[in-house]
Specification:
The structure is a single chain. By secondary structure, this protein is an all-alpha fold. It has one domain. It is built from 19 helices and four strands. It has a two-stranded antiparallel ribbon. It has a two-stranded antiparallel ribbon with strand order 3-4. Strand 1 and strand 2 form a beta hairpin. The chain is globular and about 80 Å long. The two termini are about 25 Å apart.
């Protein structure tokens, strides 16, 4: 399938899912879908709750933190006692403490950063009972927080924002499991490996060499890896291996699954607040930035890699170093941008082998705050923080108290929104400064100079944004990067979620102010441009000095920008 046809098919499929999946998710969270009530009720009874017992933002956030702490502890424990658990045909032992901590945090926070080779470190039980389960529930937690914020805008004088346990349960049962199950059938049907039979040894009778080929329950892990914007693959090569991503159809399906929920949630937002136009405005901002980054990165990867060209090797089909030839350079760039701009982190190529400007496209897409369209739930609530800041700026321009969807945006809301959007840049730059200042951090990169700096910056940006993709040249399985990376991921997740929930609680308690002739409109082209400007300015002003030392310096070292 040509690149142009791939784009057309993807746009049509996403357009349909935006309308119908978006509407369906609104019905799920408005408690209008009950066909799995027989599965819901026992869960609520075991938890001692029900849809009628709603929570304040403090109790909602407390439930989220308790659930996350318990699942973090259980996941860590499973890794440490892995050798004594069943479904371990590889006979793998316990995972080291620092790596167990980093991996447990990684999957808890929807990051799925992997400082290990999946097939050589994690048993089948660990992959299924810990990692795959976390891929479902971590995605559901992000969506639940986004829905709580949407309720903050849609409700009037309400002391509650929903029930965390109900939102979590309904998201898993009604959205993630059905879609992942159908997609899993397609992956397995296309050739993705799905077995509990263990690795297989193959002998080459021509040279007498025996090779052990890892296998496992891979096919049904792939859909939730993509759908939940997780990115953690069963195998070390992730989507670059045909065992996980066997055909062009599965490659396209992977991209579609990555984008389907983040984009569709804008329709859910519009439906729940009673104004589809407001959802379209957010969608427009996401699509415009996403389209620009796909175009830029695809063009960059269709050029020769300057380092390879300097060695006297020239290609007529773009930068093929580190790529699957069955996918091609432009489709790989599309996959990479979709993965990095949705906090997914999966890969069908080596990002370390991208051109400097191709790597620039991937890295800066994350630095915009993972809002175009961002992860499942996280993209929506983060772009709403940017929208609140845009509303505040618009209010200053017209000399009026800013309002968004009839809710006055006052000092408390602006402070919480500002805190939410600045947490990520602060922790990325602070941890990067620490990493390049001490020997343990500088020992990680494979390369020296600007490219080596980019490897460090990319890793810490990826983890703070709960993305999980890596350049591939950084040796991350060290005590320093395991511990610092774990802290990076925890702060990048919860230091934003808690302000978002506080914002949701404050907005839900407010009444709606009727619109007037002086009201700054938040559903038109001007507002879309203002939101895009806020996103670009915050990301650009914060990270431009660091970017200048990395991919820009590497590209200019070859004497030209392209």
């Amino acid at each position: 399938m040509g690149f142009a046809l791939t784009i057309i098919v993807l746009i049509l499929a996403l357009g349909l899912s935006w309308r119908f999946l978006g509407s369906y998710m609104a019905a799920v969270f408005d408690d209008r879908v009950h066909f799995l009530g027989w599965a819901e009720r026992p869960i609520y009874k075991a938890l001692g709750t029900s849809p009628d017992r709603e929570q304040s933002w403090q109790r909602y956030g407390g439930s989220l933190v308790i659930f996350s702490a318990v699942t973090l502890g259980l996941t860590y424990l499973l890794f440490r006692i892995q050798g004594s658990l069943p479904l371990n045909p590889q006979h793998l032992g316990a995972v080291p403490p620092a790596l167990s901590f980093n991996t447990a945090v990684s999957f808890l926070t929807n990051t799925n950063w992997q400082n290990y080779g999946g097939e050589s470190t994690m048993s089948y039980f660990s992959q299924m009972g810990a990692l795959t389960v976390q891929q479902f529930v971590s995605a559901a937690v992000g969506i639940a927080v986004a829905i709580a914020l949407v309720r903050g805008f849609s409700r009037r004088k309400s002391p509650t924002i929903g029930n965390f346990w109900v939102d979590l349960t309904r998201c898993v049962l009604y959205i993630l499991v059905p879609v992942a199950f159908v997609a899993g059938i397609i992956f397995v049907g296309q050739g993705a490996v799905e077995t509990l039979a263990g690795p297989i040894s193959v002998s080459n009778h021509l040279n007498g060499v025996t090779q052990t080929i890892p296998r496992g329950p891979i096919g049904f892990m792939e859909p939730i890896k993509q759908l939940g914007t997780n990115g953690g693959g069963f195998l070390d090569q992730n989507g670059a291996t045909p065992f996980e991503n066997p055909t062009g159809l599965t490659n396209l399906l992977s991209i579609f699954l990555v984008l389907i929920i983040p984009f569709s949630l804008t329709y859910t937002f519009g439906k729940m607040v009673g104004s589809i136009k407001h959802g379209v405005a957010l969608l427009a901002a996401m699509v415009l930035i996403f389209g620009c980054w796909v175009t830029f990165t695809s063009y960059a990867e269709h050029q020769n890699n300057p380092s390879v060209a300097a060695a006297g090797v020239h290609s007529t089909v773009g930068n093929t170093e580190g790529k699957e030839v069955r996918v091609g350079d432009t489709s790989t760039a599309l996959y990479g941008v979709a993965s990095t701009q949705t906090s997914t982190g999966s890969a069908d190529a080596s990002y370390d082998s991208f051109t400097p400007m191709g790597g620039f496209g991937l890295l800066t897409g994350m630095m915009l705050g993972e809002v175009t369209p961002g992860g499942v739930g996280t993209g929506l609530y983060t772009i709403l923080l940017d929208a609140i800041i845009a509303v505040f700026i618009g209010g200053l321009m017209i000399g009026r108290t800013p309002e968004y969807l009839g809710k006055k945006i006052q000092a408390r809301e602006v402070k919480l929104a500002g805190l939410g959007v600045l947490v990520m840049p602060i922790i990325v730059l602070v941890f990067t400064a620490i990493a390049v200042s001490i020997h343990a951090g500088r020992a990680g990169p494979l390369n020296s100079g600007p490219h080596g700096f980019t490897e460090i910056l990319y890793a810490l940006t990826s983890q703070a944004n709960n993305n999980g993709s890596a350049f591939g040249g950084l040796t991350g399985n060290t005590p320093f990067y395991n511990i610092v990376g774990g802290l990076d991921m925890l702060l990048g997740r919860f230091a934003i979620m808690i302000p978002v929930l506080a914002l949701a609680g404050g907005l839900a308690a407010k009444n709606v102010v009727p619109a007037s002739l002086g009201t700054f409109r938040t559903d038109n082209t001007m507002f879309v441009g203002l939101v895009i400007g806020v996103i670009l300015i915050i990301g650009g002003l914060t990270f431009f000095p660091a970017i200048s030392l990395g991919p820009i310096a590497e590209q200019l070292a070859h004497g030209k920008f392209f």
